[in-house]
Design goal:
alpha/beta, Rossmann fold, seven-stranded parallel beta sheet
Length: 254
């Protein structure tokens, strides 16, 4: 057995046209998986697919808006038509349309955050878990955040949604574990992505995080992709319902 080999596995990764999601798609493909790159915009997905294919790996683009259940059903259905199965689901796509105190947050912003960051993951998981149960094998990975581990004065709803993702993983792990299905979370700290640009692009904020973090730097997307590849692989066969924190040590030091 090759503990980190994903040859023959089929993986869907949402929000994988850039940042952490792209890194996860690239790492899973490098480990041998056939990957479905998905985000809202087809051209962005196709760019990643071509880059992966240039390495000799297999990839396809199936765009989907995570807030639309019909589009998620299409994503899963088209993957099955193409490759016949889904072995790994990575729920990475998320939204955060509001930055500031919760007292001033519009209701529609709160609703969108919960819908896209929690409910969509619930939808997707339920779309793939039954077929995994039939094969007695499957992996679901939810990309959460260290925001779900502590309080915040400016990212309240986002943090709530990410804490909910951790609990969603625990609940699903209990419900589906008897079918040899593993469900885990990754909780990144600050990573240099477009999604978190407002934090790391400010020199003062960046220095603050670098000072707080024992490793002395913020994360790169590549720091997260390998963790997903590990969780998807046979090497993680006895890990389920867990949240792996990847934050350079900031949560243990601050």
């Amino acid at each position: 057995m090759k503990p980190f080999d994903l040859t023959g596995k089929v993986a869907i990764i949402t929000g994988s046209s850039r940042g952490i999601g792209r890194s996860i798609a690239e790492h899973l493909a490098a480990a041998g998986a056939k990957v479905v790159v998905s985000s809202r915009k087809a051209p962005a997905c196709e760019e990643v697919v071509q880059a992966i294919r240039n390495t000799g790996a297999e990839a396809v683009a199936i765009p989907a808006n995570i807030g639309d259940k019909g589009q998620l059903e299409h994503l899963v259905g088209e993957t099955r038509k193409l490759w016949g199965r889904i072995d790994v689901l990575v729920c990475n796509a998320a939204s955060n349309p509001y930055y500031g105190p919760m007292a001033k947050m519009p209701d529609d912003a709160f609703d969108k955050i919960l819908q896209n960051n929690v409910v969509s993951n619930h939808w997707l998981a339920n779309l793939v878990l039954p077929e995994m149960a039939e094969r007695k094998e499957g992996v679901v990975i939810i990309v959460s955040s260290i925001g779900g581990l502590k309080g915040t004065g400016v990212l309240g709803a986002y943090a709530i949604s990410k804490a909910a993702d951790m609990q969603l993983a625990r609940n699903l792990a209990v419900e589906w574990g008897r079918h040899n299905i593993r469900i885990n979370c990754i909780a990144p700290g600050l990573v240099k992505t477009d999604f978190a640009r407002a934090l790391w692009e400010n020199p003062e904020t960046l220095r603050h995080y670098q000072t707080l973090t024992p490793l002395g730097r913020i994360g790169e997307p590549g720091d997260i992709g390998g963790i997903a590849a590990f969780l998807a692989s046979p090497a993680a066969a006895f890990i389920t319902g867990q949240t792996i924190v990847a934050d350079g040590g900031v949560t243990i030091a601050s």
